[in-house]
Amino acid sequence: MTQLEFFSSDFGQPKPEGSSAPIEPKIVSRGEPLFDPNNFGGAGFTSNTNPDDLVEGLNPQQRAAVEYRGPALLIVAGAGSGKTRVLTHRIAHLLAKREAWPSQILAITFTNKAAAEMRERVRHLLGQGADGMWIKTFHSACVMILRRESERLGHDANFTIYDSGDSRAIFKRLIKEMGADIHKLTPAGVAAVISNAKNELNDADGFARNMDASDPVQRMIAEIFSRYQAELRRNNAFDFDDLIGETVFLFRNHPDIAAQYQRKFRHILVDEYQDTNHAQYALIRELTMSIDPSLAEHYPDLVDPRTGALPEPASLTVVGDSDQSIYAFRGADIRNISEFEKDFVGAKTILLEQNYRSTQNILSAANAVIANNFDRPNKNLWTDSGDGEKIVGFTGYSAHDEAQFIADEINRLHREGISYRDIAVMYRTNSQTRALEEIFIRAAMPYRVVGGTKFYERQEIKDAMAYLVAIANARDDLATRRILNVPKRGIGDATETQIANFAAQNDLSVRQALAHVSTIGFGPKINGAITQLSDLLNELEALVPTDTVESILRQVLDRTGYLETLRNSRDPQDEARVENLEELISVAKEFGRNNPEGRLPDFLNEVALVAAADEIDDESGTVSLMTLHTAKGLEYEAVFLTGIEEGLLPHKMSFITPGGMAEERRLFYVGITRARKRLYLSLALTRTTFGESDSSTPSRYLQEIPQHLIDWRESGARSQVSSFRYRESIAESQGYRDGSGSGYGGTPKEKTEWKSAVTSVRNNEGLQLEVGDRIRHADFGDGRVLTVMGEGPRQSAEIHFERVGTKRLLVKVAPIEKL
DNA sequence: CCGTGTTCTCTTTTT
DNA sequence: GAGAACACGG
Predict the structure, then answer these.
(1) CA atoms of A66 and A350, how far apart (whole Å)
(2) How confident is the model at residue A60 (pLDDT cuts 50, 70, 90)?
(3) Is A556 helix (H, G, I), strand (E, B) or coil?
(4) Nucleotides on strand C with an atom closer than 7 A to protein CB?
(5) How far is the CA of A814 from the C1' of C3 (A)?
(6) Does the annotation count A324 as an active-site position?
(7) Which of A308, A323, A415, A640 has its CA at a distance of 20 to 30 angstroms from the CA of residue A197?
(8) A324: left (phi over 0), alpha (psi -120 to 50) or beta
(9) pLDDT at A77
């Protein structure tokens, strides 16, 4: 968001439609305008859309949800009931009826992608943009506020946002420093406790007050908490939880600031309300409070010049579905939605039950599953669009077997005319991607793993980002220390520690310490290296206000010699690293295109807050792989839910978590309801967790689905299994038996099997396949080539096998030979 | 100081 | 089975 957009605030309501130019009230706060009279939040907002058109084609409940006006509205929106439609129409309706200016609207979505989509849809409805609306995630909205109000909080506006990895690194060091590891404290464990505290708006002092002081572990955590917070402050950094919590504290400690936002936002809309935690709830509460009347005297701008009174509290619309609450582990409190009517007096509730997404068979399965959660208001999704196909069930013998079935089935769907992009494969844990990917690669299937955010976790990307952070926020010691010896400049652990100590003793940031390196007493070589780094950082920092991110990034990579080092390296991996850095440059370039005014800190904030679902490229022709959590809010023509096994879904960790079983069921429910037309439920009878292969049993949730809805496919694996068995016996006879008995009668040891097939360095580059060739495949047996597509390493072939049917294979890695 | 080899932990889900 | 942490030799 640009500065201009931020400032484009305004007051009161625009005049009703048909009247002439609206009043442009002048608001000045703290000597700085929160409102730019020359830019009326969506300059020239002159939509001629007829508001009545906006309720056209909606069902009675949806229509009511769009048209209702009042202090608080709860829209209980079952899966696929058109809630995004209702939300966007409601916003457009408010604007078209001129009941609100765009800048008076705050809409909170779950992901940036959803925010962008919502903005686009409102634009579409109004036939023009509605610039000035805040459509943001909780986190990005809070970043905006914290940056704008940074002076009052005493931090710099260009603060760093620490991700969980950064936080964990600090916890790790603190635990070590304090010898807290004797209490078996782990970074992840401490991070979880502190995160939970923050989600409850407990700060370090509050935590210390509330804890059991007789428990040494608690006291230790309290101390870590306090030191951690001190470190964040020193580094001018916030972690994810702070973004929300500090904003709440800001409002509570500065009622005048709060009043500005309470006045600015007249309509607040929150999506996925069932997954808000206490801090987020408190933030919404703050924003929807009445302005403290005593402020009117000192801040006359708060008063509506037309009425002479303070404005009413903002009206609040929340949309959610308690059956889709799946984030309890990060503090989501289902009571926020279940007790909404108690919380917000005079609230109106509207139920949306008609489903426009899925077939009745899919909905019946979903209804049946979720009905097993007690303590929920009865709800029944229905559609008038027919039963559709049956749900397909499949039991594989191994995760690879399951994956092969999915690959085959996707190819079939593709032949039927369903695009790859309309197909998603979902799973409970990220580790399940391995088997899927191994098979998909072999099957020449275009796919993309959504989330996992692998890209930003790569070494070279982390390095480059650390440079950018160190440049944008000189107080960030974490970032500065990370790049001290990147690329190698002969600064080792010992030197780094000395610099850090010097900084601590003199109350300097590490960056400042670098400037005084000569006083520390290193040799000339180290002094020279550090001075050079220090000068470079200073020079690049000076460019931040003027230069594009791309330019700064390029200079980092060039002037540090980082890129050159990689280019000169003989390690083949470094070639890929160069490519990744080029990718990062194009990310920066893209950012520059989308945000011509955007500077380095804006870029860093945006990157820090990308959500998994933001990465989905709707235009790409690839199958999407994602966790069930990431899938929330998305929908696909065909959905594969994988690993529907006890211990995986429900996950075994949930067995000991209170409410875990119900939450896992909701997760399953979310997965089922993502599907429009085709739903597949699959599982594997053996699964390898951490090397060892274990037998697994079907999930209890499967039995909750009326069996007549499921078409359990004859396991296509049968014939493969005989091949597995055959191969296994060969492996055994050759002495490969690894002794890891699976306990499952007659189950093949996929470890041995697939290892040989997948990891054997197979290179068929010279292999020329022609249509009609007969070939032999190590797993699938004999077959005949039907089609050959592509060239070189990407070449794939469709082959019809006598025993297992038609499969597509990536020629280069397929264990095949010509007959 | 740096690269390499070995042992150990780890897996729920995410902004 | 992978990545991090540690130990050791150059």
Answers:
(1) 10
(2) very high
(3) helix
(4) 1, 5
(5) 29
(6) yes
(7) A323
(8) alpha
(9) 93
What is the DSSP code string of A27-48?
Answer: -EETTEESS-TTS-SSTT----
Query: Which of these is catalytic: A97, A428, A475, A674?
Result: A674
Tell me what the mean pLDDT of segment A498-510 comes to. Answer: 91
Distance from CA(A773) to C1'(B11), angstroms, rounded: 44
Residue A83 designated active-site: yes
Strand C and chain A: which residues 725-764 have CB closer than 7 Å? Answer: 751, 755, 759
Identify the pLDDT of residue A43.
Answer: 41
A375 is catalytic: no
Q: ω before A487 within 30° of 0 (cis)?
A: yes
Residues A581/A424, Cβ–Cβ less than 8 Å = no
Q: How far apart are CA A273 and CA A61, in angstroms?
A: 19
> A571-610 in b/e burial notation, b at 16+ Cβ within 10 A?
eeeeeebbebbeebbebbbebbeebeebbbbbbbbbbbbb
CA separation for the pair A533, A525 (Å, rounded) = 13
What is the spatial distance between Cα A171 and Cα A255, in angstroms, rounded to a whole number? 33
pLDDT digit string, tens, across residues A707-741: 999 998 865 444 344 344 433 333 333 333 333 32
Region A367-383: mean pLDDT is 88
d(CA A580, CA A577): 5
**Separation of alpha carbons A80 and A105, rounded Å:** 25
Q: Identify the active-site residue in A104, A324, A688, A747.
A: A324
Question: For residue A310, what pLDDT band results from cuts at 50, 70 and 90?
Answer: confident
CB A173 under 7 Å to nucleic chain C:
no
Catalytic hit among A24, A49, A63, A84: A84
Closest CA to A340 of A356, A323, A320: A320
pLDDT of residue A762: 55
In angstroms, what CA-CA distances link A702 with A209, A217, A373, A669, A760? 46, 42, 14, 11, 37
Report the C-alpha gap between A82 and A59 in whole angstroms: 10
Distance A131 CA to C7 C1' (A): 60
Query: Active site residue: A272, A408, A476, A645, which one?
Result: A272
